Amino acid sequence: MTLLVISPDYASHLLPLATLATAWRDRGDDVVVASGPATSSIVSSFGFRGAELRLGRGSNPGTIRAEEQPAGEDDSLRGFFDATRRGLVDTLAYQASQRTTDLLWQPLETASAVLKVIDQVKPDAVIVDHLAFTARLALQAAGIRHADVVLGHPSALPIAGEVYGYPTSWPRAFDPDVDALERLRASCILVRDRFTEQWNDALAVLDPSAASSSDAFAEHGDTLLLNYPGQLHDPERTAQLATHAFLGSAIRDEPADPEVDAWLSRGGAPIVYVSFGSFLSVRADVLARVADALRPLDVRVAVAIGSADRRDLGELPHTWLVREFLPQVTMLKHAVLAVTHGGNNSVTEAATAGVPMLVLPFSTDQFAGAEAVESRGYGLALAPNTASVDELRAAAQSLLTDTELRDRSRLLGSELRATPGRDRAYGALSS
């Protein structure tokens, strides 16, 4: 059989989708990945065939920098980074303001390109990123059955009166102004309605007989796959989801890295892994505070600094491993604590490794993900803009010494590793 995977041109999206597709590859099936040129090397590294498909203006081969983006997208990214410095409400409000330009990009032209790929590949099954709205619009209009993978926190698919872009929850460390939250919700409702109008306008052209949507953000594919551990999700919300499967995580195999392997083999103090992902690593000011907090502790630290300038982190111990990029899955297998921005890949990969988390969320569903980690007892969450060095150090020390939390995290990891996400995805599509 032939499986088609449709992904935006972002490494953070393609890597988990490609990992899920290895379940088909390893069974001898043909896998074709439709994405943009920036991630073509990732496609080939998995041994998949590629089909070029642009789903948006931007791209991200692993570490994103505003100056490397096309005109318009660069300013949008700078605006986003600036908003994260002002806090939860301002960040989500800015993201809402950008939503109608970056989620339904050139819908008719892109839909045509998607259907052209379908005609060329003639797949037996299709997996598509939930945030690839234009691709899902094309598939829905053409009546092509597909599996829809929510790669973020499950609240990325709103249910039961939720409004896309408005946080379903946030950690205790955040105390947003009530009036500001009301303004944010009103803004998200306006964006939802505008986005739904755009969706319906394009749908009417692609399939004049199709019924209009009342909330395009709530639309989903024929098979709903959630790349998230069910153990971290609120049971009451789980009961309200459409028929679905929790995948747990999509843990990929990583090639050997001699420098990393040598550093890990030296032994010594416990390892703390620090990463703010491909986007938020730009917040060097927060990374610097985290480094200051960890410096006096009896730990070895591995820091993936991404787009941050290493000089902004100050003088770091020679025993630390500091690089732009580190093999996260490998590092987490050896870590006793992960300090993270709360991106879904980071949360699910740390959970699968059984590693407690100190989460410093900046944007989107990271707030809900951080709240889940804290409330379900797998870590702590702090506000990145206001957490002091002393507060960060105290939180890290608490997590390093909490044996009950460590045991709970290890048990969760064992449960998730018992049935990998790729096998859950294959089972859901094969049933």
TrEMBL record:
- Domain Erythromycin biosynthesis protein CIII-like C-terminal: residue ranges: 289-420
State the name under which the record lists this protein.
Answer: Glycosyltransferase, MGT family
Record's superkingdom? Answer: Bacteria
Keywords attached to this Swiss-Prot or TrEMBL record, sorted alphabetically, are: Glycosyltransferase, Transferase
One MF term in the entry's GO annotations: UDP-glycosyltransferase activity
> Which CDD domains does the entry mention?
GT1_Gtf-like
The family database entries (Pfam families) matched by this protein are listed as: EryCIII-like_C
From the broadest rank down, the organism's phylogenetic lineage runs: Bacteria, Bacillati, Actinomycetota, Actinomycetes, Micrococcales
